[in-house]
Amino acid sequence: MKKLTTLFALLAGFAGFAQTETVCHTPATEKFAMFASNKSFNKKHPLPDVYVHVSAAGGKMIKIKTDGADANAYVIEAKTKTDNWIFVFQEWWGLNDHIKREAENLYNDLGNVNVLALDMYDGKVGTTREEAGKYMQEFKQDRGNAIVKGALAYVGKNAKVGTIGWCFGGGQSMQASLTAGGQAVACVIYYGMPEESVDRLKNLNCDVLDIWPTQDQWINKDVTEKFQKNMAAAGKKLTVKSYDADHAFANPSNPKHSKEFTADAYKNTLDFFKARLK
Predict the structure, then answer these.
(1) How many CB atoms lie within 10 A of CB 104?
(2) C-alpha–C-alpha distance, residues 92 and 113, integer Å
(3) Of 11, 101, 135, 200, which one is least surrounded by beta carbons within 10 A?
(4) Residue 231 is inside which H or E element, if any?
(5) pTM of the full structure
(6) What's the pLDDT tens digit per position in 96-152?
(7) Is-contact 175 28, C-beta < 8 A?
(8) CATH number of the domain located at residue range(s) 28-276 in this protein
(9) Helix 97-110 × helix 259-276 angle, to 10°
(10) Domain boundaries in the chain?
């Protein structure tokens, strides 16, 4: 009986340890998706402005082959052929006209570069907080990785890829740079969930610029400091630009939008990309 009691105790302890390990290693995408059930997080995302983006640079929607269903993307091709690409990742709303406008801004301001905004929701665009939260929670990282791999095949093996995203897309920018391997040259994250696994970060091929609003309750000081420690442990270069602002401060539809901080963050973003896309 004593042996059985000891065995049960060991099994219970192992189960508790396994449960703890699972919680500690929840993937970054799933961690961020959990925020969608938080009413306070949802209120930080005012409904996006309704408008139709008309591209002056020839942007168009295309289909990309993936290991699964075809993916959607918005592409703006450089006027002169180049292997420089920027992959753009949506906020939790989806690939809406705001993201297409951001893609076109990057295209215009970076110079000779191709820009590809990827639709990570496969055609779904949230127009309410409830829809956006639902789509973000339904998103599977395996599908996201497949979309990025399809995009890499589309741009070709010689492409040099920079990634950028906001909110949900900030985390996807990081995951895409990991997926891109040796083709990744620059990663920009705006208030997104970073990768926590040091082992995975060791495989990152590029520097990272983290745009961090210090008032953010979710991508907060603890998350940011842990990211800094993990990147240092992985031997990777991370630059954190902090702003006395709140989550989603760079979105013009946000009542807490800061034109001053947005302009400075954007300047840092352009400088970061230009130094690495040569």
Answers:
(1) 22
(2) 25
(3) 11
(4) helix 221-234
(5) 0.88
(6) 999 999 999 999 999 989 999 999 999 999 999 999 999 999 999 999 999 999 999
(7) yes
(8) 3.40.50.1820
(9) 50
(10) 28-276
